[in-house]
Amino acid sequence: MKRIDGRAGGGQLVRLAVALAAMEGVPVRIDHVRGARDQPGLRAQHVTAIRIIGALTDADYEGAEVGSETVIFRPGQIVGGEVEVDVGTAGSISLVFDAALPLAMATDTEFSVAATGGTDVKWSPPIGYHRFVKLLFLRRFGLAAEISVERRGFYPQGGGLATLSVSPSDMAPINGLERGALEAVTIHSTATADLQEAEVPTRQANGARDALESAIDVPIATRIESVDSDSTGTVVLVVAEYEHSVAGFDALGEPGWPAEDVGEAAAQQFRRFHQATGAVDRHLADQLLPFLARSGGSITTPTLTDHVRSSRTLLETFGYELDIQTDTDRTRISAGSP
């Protein structure tokens, strides 16, 4: 049994450890779960992720409860199927999908996860980032997965509904060293229907466009959406498509924050990335590690995050090796296929 010290990372470490255990078919014990956090122990989205992987692998597990600081997970074979879960209130659906998605590389059967909760909430990627950045990038190397969104969920009520559909994926080594030329930018601006009269989604998009037009010379598309949801909320996502890569930058609206400034905040994140030389943004670099470790390849990113450091240590526990080299303007992360 692999033993993991949960104080070395947060919820991402828990999700990745359980996913790796399922992919490798080895049991894992995680102690001191999120022990360095102000509120240690599992949160609702972590519990849901464990239960999903458990259902998909016919696993036995202990400690999958909110507040638990010890988790024991004994996976069986990946059986696939259709899983339905409720994360609870506005717990992140995106983070739940993060746990299940790597199983695409280890399964010979299709599976789907339908989750209710938060689609666009703090401390996690908005669901559009997964759809239009992460999955778009990974499909270039053979990942067969898609996400459909039936309803958006914002803080605090959540109530969003999305479905992840996955097919067995024989992935090629990931080549994310150079991004190539910028080819297109799309602004996705979404707000709940109660903000439509104030033209919030349009104003968000305009704020992003105004900040972008002077900085780039490529087509800028705009997708504006008014949605029904249990709680008021807004989100803007700037997607940059390069010749060899995709990157995404987002901002969530907050009371008292002008819609134009929300859009500008996402655009400024993109501008900083575009002025650097890494091929993938720092959030995508975090999320690519299990795919990189399993399939091999290399990526570059402008910034090395703590998530990358803790995930690297965890991957080494399961026999994967990542080489990290930092230069003055970017970090290169490489892995040989096992």
Structural overview:
This protein is of the alpha/beta class. It has 8 helices and 16 strands. The strands form 4 sheets. It has a 4-stranded mixed β-sheet, with helices on one face. Helix 1 (about 10-25) runs parallel beside helix 3 (about 95-100), helix 2 runs parallel beside helix 3 and helix 5 runs parallel beside helix 6 (about 260-275). The longest helix is centred in the last third of the chain and has 17 residues, at about 260-275. The model has no long low-confidence stretch (mean pLDDT about 95).
List the defining traits of the structure above.
four-stranded mixed β-sheet, 31% helix, 338 residues, UDP-n-acetylglucosamine1-carboxyvinyl-transferase, Chain, 8 helices, alpha/beta, globular
TL;DR?
It contains eight helices and 16 strands. It has 338 residues and is of the alpha/beta class.
Give the SSE map.
Blueprint: E1 2-5, H1 11-24, E2 28-31, H2 44-56, E3 60-62, E4 70-74, E5 81-86, H3 93-100, E6 111-117, H4 127-139, E7 145-151, E8 160-166, E9 174-176, E10 182-192, H5 200-213, E11 220-227, E12 234-242, E13 246-252, H6 259-275, H7 282-295, E14 297-301, H8 306-317, E15 323-326, E16 331-335
Parallel strand pairs: 1-2, 5-6, 9-14, 10-11
Antiparallel strand pairs: 2-4, 3-4, 6-8, 7-8, 10-12, 12-13, 14-16, 15-16
